[in-house]
Amino acid sequence: MRLAEVEALMLNVGLAVFAAFIFFIIYDLAKKSNAGKFGTFVLFFALGLGLAAFLVKTVVVEMIGA
Asked: How wide is the angle at C-alpha 18 spanned by C-alphas 41 and 65, nearest 5°?
């Protein structure tokens, strides 16, 4: 396995861990603020939208570059 392949693999693993950590942070924020079901939904939707845009951008750039 070449270095570039290892780097690409670790980038994907790192992004997945980053996404999971962001969702944990949003959940913890909702829990500590007693947001309720609707408030938790709004937090996940609003803050998760930024993460989703980042991931979509990554996918689009990979598709254009290929």
From this structure: 105
Predicted model pTM: 0.70
Q: Mean pLDDT for the chain? A: 89
Domain ranges of the chain: 3-65
Q: How far is CA 44 from CA 10, 60, 61, in A?
A: 26, 23, 25
User: How far apart are the C-alpha atoms of 36 and 15, rounded to whole Å?
Assistant: 29
Strand positions, DSSP E, 1-66: none
Residue 58: closest CA among 19, 24, 4: 19
